[in-house]
Amino acid sequence: MKSGEEEYRLNFFLKNDFKRKICKSCKTPFWTKDEKREYCADIPCTDYYFFDIDIKSSPLTVKEAREKFLSFFEKRGHTVIPPKPVLARWREDLYLTIASIVDFQPHVTSGLVPPPANPLVVSQPSIRLEDIDNVGITFGRHLTTFEMAAHHAFNYPDKYVYWKDETTSYATEFFTKELGIPEEELNFKESWWEGGGNAGPCLEVTVGGLELATLVFMQYKIEENGTYTPLKLKIVDTGYGVERIAWITQKTPSAFHAIYGNLVYKFFDKIGVPYVDEELLKIASRLAGRIDPDNPETIKLHRKMVSEKLGIELKRVDEELDRAAKVFQVLDHTKTIMLMLADGLVPSNSGEGYLGRLVIRRALRVLKLLKSDVRLYELLKEQIDFWKEDFPQVLKNKDYILDAVELEQQRFETILDKIPSIASSLSKKKEISVEDLVQIYDSNGIPPDLLEDELNKRGVKIEVPRNFYALVAKRHQTSRIKDKTEKAKLPKDVIDYAMKLQPTEKLYYKDQYMRSFEGRVIGVHKNYLVLDRTAFYPEGGGQLGDTGFIIDEKRNKKYEVIDTQKVNDVVVHVLKEQPTIDIGDVVKGEINWERRYRLMRHHTVTHIILASAKKVLGDHVWQAGAEKTPEKGRLDITHHKPLSEEEIKLIEDNANKIIADRRPVRAIEINRMEAEMKYGVSIYEGGVPNSATIRLLEIKDWDIESCGGTHVSNTSEIGAVKITNVEKIQDGVIRLEYVAGSALIDYIRETERMLNEASKIIGASPSQLSSRLKRVINEKEENERLLAQYRKMFENIIISNLKPYEINGIKVYIVEGVDDEEEIKEIMRRLTIPQSTIALSISGNRIQIATAENLKVDKIVEELRKIGGRGGGRGTFANIMMENKKSKEEVLEILRKVL
């Protein structure tokens, strides 16, 4: 959708003598006060000339730029709100926080819930990986991690805050008054923005070749069919580049110098490469606007210009800038890795973990290309120390960050050992496509440029796309949103029927201990029954649906409820048989209380164990899945390595302390945005509900999280919990299984039964079982040692008594009188150690053949097959089944024929 000129013809521009011009280069309209200006002051239409602009502001660090921005808007009536994590865990469609507006999509932007403040201001750390291959090459124009400082206003039909004129006025005032940029250097370039399902016209603020901000006026929703419909809200969505504000005030040779300060020089030193010629870097940076990373020819042209301007060899320019770009990449990537891990990412082969691993492996690949032996965690240490005041979570989670990164480096080094074998198998292909390279990276984690070196040695040429990592990241950066009805285990016709009915009153929330109730029938479809109210809990959040009975007292009939499911807000009772009940009838429901109470205990203890795992293992632990059945509970958590026995014991001990401490458990209904601001996005561990009001479960001073299940009202009702099994189920995910309450009694009884059974078998009492088992094991080991000796003696006797047959200079032994399969093979092996020997074993229809290394079984097998043999072998051993039993003499005759 293209917007017309009227979208940008603002009163602010007209009143303040801004003129609309068309850029001589890109033909894009822009607004400026400089009557002589012919270009939009954005690259590639111009070089970076902001270095020459007289800016009144003193040089600002990233922290100072952030604080100046927040303070400016706070003084103008905006509420400062804290940023969200870089992992977008309040979204089901996105893994990473790519912009500040992501904080409010989709629930605030759709009008479902109000924003935390209106207007507001935030500086949101963001991560985008679509430009990962361009980092360093453009001197800081492209970054994987950056801070988007933003002020937002949400205009409702009945509440106007501010719109285009005020937004543009704020930008002008901030850049001219706060930063001291001359007003005639300020340009507003007309553009169009789309993201997260929304769209609208925007103005890009450019100064001296640098885009400093984007002012978006979000007013459309993009429908699934691609059409645009007006939003109920008109949203001011701005994005100011904090790092670029720092760069334009510092005027350093690259944005990396402005962002990282002395850390730049420290990284060159730690990586072990010489620092780049700074004069060369300054000239290259000024001309960097001419680089289009998607066009390698522009990179060559840029370097040629640098070479000519400085009068130095092109080869030296290439070496210096290649080295600088790689170090800048490591600087950028390690900061991204730090923020990802600090906010809880666990590297893995799927989801957000895949993206984290991709950045880590790209950093490791760059270090390898630089021939550096520095450990990646050493560089992360420097980043943590540098950013600890800006992002306190990085210091809090330092141990996890360093441990996870070192483990990833060890895995990467193991992977590199596979390169020769992968290259060998690939070299047989006629053509190696980009898809092949992506598949190899996904399956084995091997960087294509490292694979390219190995293939070149084998005479195979491949074309590695320069944006390879961006291509891979794009495939994994979003998550498919699941239709809520997909979760219902119901036939489609039942789902369609239920969706036409009114929502069910949920008695199980009003009183989780309600065992029976009365309800009016509002829907009957086959053996599926819907009531206007119910105490039957429908399956959800990993908790099974209730079972029990529906009693029709009018007809004196009782129907068994074998399951309970939900379609949106309608609860569906699944009956064992089709009922003869009329709509409008009042029936009685009785839930299977013993089963439900077991589920309540297991559901509540799941929350306790999750919080305990976080306290023992770290904040990176996140619920990856859960299931609660009457027999046991199951919790899958994200963690980067197997749990030790001590860690398992601590998780269990902590959980039992909370149970014994009689902590109150209560459900809270709360506004979604208020909940996020108060408790953070960890409330979404069990999933993201799509409602303005959400239900939180609070275990006093221990855990609080969004949950729609049923729970006990006090932790003491759980009784106790025992972790029964811990295993790694996939990369980065650990499964915990446990039993609580009466299920724990069942577990103890079953364990006791097995203990008693084992005691009877071994002939000892349970208390003596351990010492008796040790004795039995010792005896077994001694018997095995003696048996090995006797076997050796037996083999020696057999071998010494065997007389070989001589056939054409080859000794042929026939092994007889041995029944044990392993014994036969060992004797035959020993007999054929000397050259030119053959050993045979004939047992019924079966013939086994072994030969010395200088002989092969192939011809013997071939001859035996001619007379009805099946089976085979190759090399020095064969196993043949004959149709008819062959005598020793017959087999020897065959050998004479062959030999």
UniProtKB/TrEMBL annotation:
Instruction: Give one Pfam hit by family name.
Output: tRNA_SAD
Record-linked SMART domains: tRNA_SAD (SM00863)
Q: Which residues bind Zn(2+)?
A: 603, 607, 707, 711
Cofactor annotation comment: Binds 1 zinc ion per subunit.
One Gene Ontology cellular component:
cytoplasm
GO molecular-function annotation terms? alanine-tRNA ligase activity; aminoacyl-tRNA deacylase activity; ATP binding; tRNA binding; zinc ion binding
| Catalyzed reaction equations | tRNA(Ala) + L-alanine + ATP = L-alanyl-tRNA(Ala) + AMP + diphosphate
Alanyl-transfer RNA synthetases family profile domain residues? 60-750
Task: Report the subcellular localization.
Answer: Cytoplasm
Does the keyword Glycoprotein belong to this entry?
A: no
Q: Which residues form a coiled coil?
A: none
Q: Does the keyword Lyase apply?
A: no
Which PANTHER family has this protein been placed in? ALANINE--TRNA LIGASE, CYTOPLASMIC, ALANYL-TRNA SYNTHETASE
| Protein name, UniProt field | Alanine--tRNA ligase
- What is the organism field in this record? Sulfolobus tengchongensis
What lineage is on file? Archaea, Thermoproteota, Thermoprotei, Sulfolobales, Sulfolobaceae
